[in-house]
Amino acid sequence: xxxxxxxxxxxxxxxxxxxxxxxxxxxxxxxxxxxxxxxxxxxxxxxxxxxxxxxxxxxxxxxxxxxxxxxxxxxxxxxxxxxxxxxxxxxxxxxxxxxxxxxxxxxxxxxxxxxxxxxxxxxxxxxxxxxxxxxxxxxxxxxxxxxxxxxxxxxxxxxxxxxxxxxxxxxxxxxxxxxxxxxxxxxxxxxxxxxxxxxxxxxxxxxxxxxxxxxxxxxxxxxxxxxxxxxxxxxxxxxxxxxxxxxxxxxxxxxxxxxxxxxxxxxxxxxxxxxxxxxxxxxxxxxxxxxxxxxxxxxxxxxxxxxxxxxxxxxxxxxxxxxxxxxxxxxxxxxxxxxxxxxxxxxxxxxxxxxxxxxxxxxxxxxxxxxxxxxxxxxxxxxxxxxxxxxxxxxxxxxxxxxxxxxxxxxxxxxxxxxxxxxxxxxxxxxxxxxxxxxxxxxxxxxxxxxxxxxxxxxxxxxxxxxxxxxxxxxxxxxxxxxxxxxxxxxxxxxxxxxxxxxxxxxxxxxxxxxxxxxxxxxxxxxxxxxxxxxxxxxxxxxxxxxxxxxxxxxxxxxxxxxxxxxxxxxxxxxxxxxxxxxxxxxxxxxxxxxxxxxxxxxxxxxxxxxxxxxxxxxxxxxxxxxxxxxxxxxxxxxxxxxxxxxxxxxxxxxxxxxxxxxxxxxxxxxxxxxxxxxxxxxxxxxxxxxxxxxxxxxxxxxxxxxxxxxxxxxxxxxxxxxxxxxxxxxxxxxxxxxxxxxxxxxxxxxxxxxxxxxxxxxxxxxxxxxxxxxxxxxxxxxxxxxxxxxxxxxxxxxxxxxxxxxxxxxxxxxxxxxxxxxxxxxxxxxxx
Amino acid sequence: xxxxxxxxxxxxxxxxxxxxxxxxxxxxxxxxxxxxxxxxxxxxxxxxxxxxxxxxxxxxxxxxxxxxxxxxxxxxxxxxxxxxxxxxxxxxxxxxxxxxxxxxxxxxxxxxxxxxxxxxxxxxxxxxxxxxxxxxxxxxxxxxxxxxxxxxxxxxxxxxxxxxxxxxxxxxxxxxxxxxxxxxxxxxxxxxxxxxxxxxxxxxxxxxxxxxxxxxxxxxxxxxxxxxxxxxxxxxxxxxxxxxxxxxxxxxxxxxxxxxxxxxxxxxxxxxxxxxxxxxxxxxxxxxxxxxxxxxxxxxxxxxxxxxxxxxxxxxxxxxxxxxxxxxxxxxxxxxxxxxxxxxxxxxxxxx
Lengths: 833, 352
Fold this sequence. Notes:
The complex is a heterodimer. By secondary structure, chain A is α+β, with helices and mostly antiparallel strands. A 7-stranded mixed β-sheet of chain A has the order 25-28-31-35-34-33-32, sandwiched between helices. Chain B has 2 domains: 2-90; 110-351, 2-Layer Sandwich (BirA Bifunctional Protein, domain 2). Helix content of chain B is 41%, strand content 20%. Chain B has helices spanning 2-18, 22-33, 38-44, 51-90, 110-124, 138-141, 176-184, 224-239, 299-304, 324-332, 339-342, 345-348, and strands at 128-129, 135-137, 161-162, 165-170, 189-198, 209-219, 245-252, 255-264, 288-297, 316-323. Chain B is rod-shaped, with a radius of gyration of 43 Å. The relative contact order of chain B is 0.11. Chains A and B meet through helix 6, helix 9, helix 11, helix 13 and strand 25 of A and helix 5, strand 1, strand 3, strand 4 and helix 7 of B.
């Protein structure tokens, strides 16, 4: 909402510079986005001029050389390009030294050899309108040399106000004036609609027009007046200037008057050419099934049963509150006007506006729900101006089709409640004064106040808390609100819960293992699954779709973290990076209700509605190139399956999880020979593997390796923070190294499990530290070197005891076709740390 | 014979003391103590001596031998250390070569870091942390937050909806968790909720996905002044101990009164003017920077959870919603919101 300052001051003049007023409004709840200046930055050197002579320029067809009286200094010669300039005109003149809108300073200049001492102005040069062709012709009553600012506002400050949805009253200049009155205490003028236009002539409005409202719930009030003898033409300059400063284009006096009345009262109006309404009849109804209408913008629109139409006898002329009709539009030939001022159901207007993607100055007001009483205010303002400025005669009477007016409401404001909510004392007399200035009727009732809400605030102020806000904001939070800290806790301390602490730890570990954390988009394009070679019926090929995405790239919710990891890797590589190690901790979005109900905090939907999605929190990592950079000392081997397996195992170990389990298994986007399914304590966790070369190619990456695991089972298995002391120092351990030869078909995990089985509970650790495949062990065989550690909690183990266990291990290994090639005591054994 | 032994002892001692290398000492050991050495021969020949001489000669020879042995050992140790030093000096490296790179550390994303920072501040003030779903029901995102259907307040946030579920949307704020938390736990309640939120908007200061930190406090007797104190404490922890905050009345459907909150500019100390005299670019000369929206929980919102112990006549509270990217942008001079989601490692690696 743009509020020209001179217009505002007509009703309430705070007597302070506009910037100071803006600051005070901001601090009391009226958001002034900025103070704009319309027209030149200063009124200096702009005067009224009289053209005494206008002759053809000797060397330019389109220019005229004018002699212009500008007051005491004597006539000036001004070269002018306007085709309509003529001797005898009273015009607006900018003299050398004037600053034009935009800040440029006007100087004397030679135009085709003729010196020009100023400029005769067109409307656009003063930012009054868009007209550039003709000079602005002023009323000849103004004397030459009169400062132009005395005729039309120059350097007009305009308050640009962001009106919040609750304050429909501030969509009108008088509403803003009331707010200025409330905030500053400066006097407020009488309501400008207090005085109505005089009606004249024979007959009355029902002789010329008829209104039928079929849907009173959607159209609570419809008022209409009829004007005869209307002379359509341009509006007077002051009206054009006001509309232009308020951001509306001047069109013609009738249309300008409806806009002016709307800008003043917040109530939109609509003028019809009565002659073009058959029988002068209007019908308000909802659209019929399948009904279509071509609106003023030339678009054929399909209407639904909730769309409210204003129709004449031939059919729809407009969509209520949104758009008028072409046929009955006021034109230069119009002499009879029907002026509609209606009240519409705000929710319905908003719905239709969104459905048809149509918005207007009027709908922006109507959708906030105006009070029906506002209609007659706008009728009064517009009627007076039509009579005064368009020579119209107001036909006696007003058609007023109204549902019962909403009951006024009176609210109780308890004294204790004000300070109880705000923590700030406001003297009761001040509270009453603030409410009265805002237009409330106020009555004392003991310590309490009874406040009757004015129509302008009817739908906004409905409860005691709303009154508390009003008195609080006018008292001034910036000036009076104390600063206190609440007593938090009541026996509780603030802290992170265990899951939150573990999540932080997991992220820290991935970071410390060399991975940069990324935050990827939750949405992706529906084609991502295909690029990852994921196909139906895989759940991940059927993502949750966004109904109204900004673009196709945000049309699907991600079902894996891999897509954003590949996107980020690819982008960084394209920008010249040679290697990346990335991780993300975040959700993916899968169809289906979570298997267990966890209450509202866990994401349950209200009532019996099943949640349509689960959002498992995951860790994903992706490495391209080496984890340790190549240097003059070596290194630089690209990360492979085992590099990421090590990272994943370190992550789990750091959380105090039991060892992860890996089985050969693949995913459509992974290298089928170098990928594994990961689980923990029997619970599935996710995948690990080298990314399939075809997927890499799609993302323009040479090779990549990664993993993606669910956080929940990992964190559930974590024992970090719950460790119990274990005595590892009193009795020494015994270490033994075993070399085992086994068929390559037997997995390392199988051999390890067999060793552990044979070693029994005294075998506390098994580490594989070497692996050999080649001539020395023979075709189809592999040699593995294992370091074993035996320990008893209550005694020092004897060599014979360990020897027995070794024999048991050897026997078990025979069972899977493996042999111990040799056993040596590891150096330094027995160990005593 | 005894004289001869003494002569050998003296000669040996002198030679050993003069010797400077391990090799020389080894040679002397052979010469004076080896199998063919005179002293060794004397000891070996003791049995042939007359009985009366055996004792004194044997004693003297043994003593001399032990003395020389000890002396050689001592000298050898000294010579060995000197020779090792000489070898080590020769094994000199170019200390100006770069160090071997350790496995590099990764970096925490600035959003995660800022989230933790705010969480820790609020935990310090006694709050707990909760999280919730991003795919949300209209009831929690709007209705229970006092946004009735077809109310203009819903236009404040342009919403992404989920296809074929007209009541399901991507949450536009972390505020639905206010309701979820109150349904789960009775008052007093002091929680913060970090998380992703979504709005249909995209430019340098708007991203279709961004992060918020919701704060909610509900108990008996909480006031707007308490909100101001809480936000002042948080703002000082985030932006410096000399910060001030101010509350500007505003409108949000789920708080009443509602406020927008400004913090005094930490670049110009709230003056709007930089030390050089220029206009402060951070606060645009205002001296204040808008950081969040807040307010007293609207009684209508409490009405939706009245069955869970939230009687609007008995308890009241305040809530606030802070943009996490906004805090990070201010603290680290980041010009464009979209950079957070670009994930250029050259940016990521600037923040640990």
